Amino acid sequence: MYAVSQAFMDAMVADRRQVDAKIVIDYTDPLIDQSIQVETSEQARISWPEQTADGLTQAPYMWASLDGTWTLDQARRPMPDTQKLASRYQVGWWGQRFAGIGGVFAEPYPTLTVTHTPRPVHSLKVVGENQFSEYPVDFTIRLRDGLGALLHEEIVTGNDLLTWSKAFDAPVLDVTSQELEVRKWSHEGRQVKILEFFTSVQETYYRDDIVEIRLLEEREVSQGSLPVGNISANEVSIRLVNDDGKFDIDNNRSPLWRLLKPNRRIRVWLGVEIGGEHEWVPLGVFWSSDWDSPDDSLEAQVRARDKMEHLGQSVYRTSEAEQSVSAAALFQTILEDAGLKEDEYEIDEGLQDIIIPWAWMPVVSHREALRLLAEATMSVVYCDRAGRVRVAAGIGTADPCDITGDDYLPPLRHQVRREQVANEIVVRTLPVVQVSEPVEVSRTSNPIDIPAGGEVHLTAAYNQIPVTGAEIALIDPPAGVSVVSADYYAWGADIVIENTGASTVSVMFSISGKPLVVQGGDEITAYDADSIVADGLLRYEFADNHLIQTAEQAQSIAEGLLASAQVARRDVEFEWRGNPALELGDRVNVTTHIKEDRQSLYAIIKQELNWAGAFWARLVGRRLE
């Protein structure tokens, strides 16, 4: 359950309540909008100018700098010097030269330029460095179109604000570049330090701006079989008020013109007012897919899905065959290869105890790689309310929430799904061994032409996978031809071959390595004899999975599936007044509407949350006892 106050929980069960909604949409984001480019005329050895367009205006620490101002009695942090660290800590643009007497810079002046696709600019903003209380005093901002023509020039002198901003009465249209030229700084002997310049477009919508919010979140999806290894992308559908035409695609005076695109970040909250302030519960982080603003309607609609949708579109191709790897480490490798940072995922610690003798993945999407691993470890993968990818090996352990007959609309629907009932489970192991001697696993079928003084980048797929210890060998290479680099994966290799000669030559190559081959294997069966006698044989064969290699792992899967599938699941589904603090995997005690003394414990596997001025929900629970 999302951590909320007792006052929030009391408000959810009150006879009269008002649930409010909040939506924040980031219409510009340099992390997903590849049209945004940041350039500088100069910068320090460690400087992150792209952060001047990320919407963040505060540096978390006073960074260490050898500008003569750092004394031993001051606590300072080393600046983040890697992309991974920079993704967590705000630095912004630091210039190279120090300001002269009175803070004046000599020509050429330090300049920051942000380019992007054509858009209207409604305001300007320049943010200095908050930890040092430094800021530009005299500066010029120039807005230009795609041909470089000057559309607007803003000359500022004598500024004494850490955050300077200006709103235009009418937008400047078709701007493709924004240039900041700093002539005078607040402190002499210091370099430029700009935390934010690009006027990113972020809008927040509240109750009066929102028509409807519909959220679907689930931990598993039934696909006509036992729900093992299934992954879904949570989805939100939002309708917004559009009486001013802001969301009209052809409105070139709208601040959102040309910004209603896929992959805009959307965050949604529901909350209640407590003691004059709102306590908000996040519903998730999503990225837009479809925008719709009909001409005959005063509403605009956007649909968005969470990060699992992105993971289904990116490709995992760097997998290597590794020996004795924990499931937790393999999950982490897949997620980091997908570009997720440490704070963007959470992996159940219990998965460290599951050791896979030989672990690898074919070329698949990151989402499919997660699915295969989740299937082999009986875990679930989903996005939580904070937008993090969660890998869970069980259900929540917090005290269950009580739902009584006064909270839901009858009837409770108990669905008995025969296709999800089994009293005999069969799981096969696929143990692999490494061949003792290298064999040829790839060979060019035709000569490859390499231009004079040039290089060729190639991808070679193996004729069997996975392969370990791969090595490339050129076949009778001409003089001046050599392998510059070779990155070997479980399924193939990325190769760069160079020709330093004066003419084009042809070359062939082969790759040798030690494949892993399936040797032996067991068929593990778990069954319930009494159920077979009573109901007949209901057999379920677990799909072959190359990550299931030991009898112990197969036995654990078979017994776990049998425990949950040998009797009808009796999932419960009902509509009720809802509580946004309840999350997937939380436990709920549901008391029947007719027989108040009949109470059952369920784990939440699916929720539909609906807000349209009022709030209600539909819940699907998996019976636990």
Can you walk through the features of this model?
- The radius of gyration is 30 Å and the shape is globular.
- About 1% of the residues have low confidence.
- It is mainly beta and 625 residues long.
- The strands form nine sheets. Strands 1, 9, 10, 11, 12, 13, 14, 22, 23, 35, 36, 37 and 38 form a 13-stranded mixed beta sheet that branches. A five-stranded antiparallel beta sheet has the order 2-4-7-5-6, with no helix packed on it. Strands 25, 26, 27, 29 and 32 form a five-stranded antiparallel beta sheet that branches.
- The two termini are 20 Å apart.
- The longest helix has 15 residues.
- Among the domains are: 164 residues, Galactose-binding domain-like (Jelly Rolls, Sandwich); 82 residues, Phage tail protein beta-alpha-beta fold (3-Layer(bab) Sandwich); 86 residues, Elongation Factor Tu (Ef-tu), domain 3 (Beta Barrel), CATH 2.40.30.
- Helix 4 runs antiparallel to helix 5.
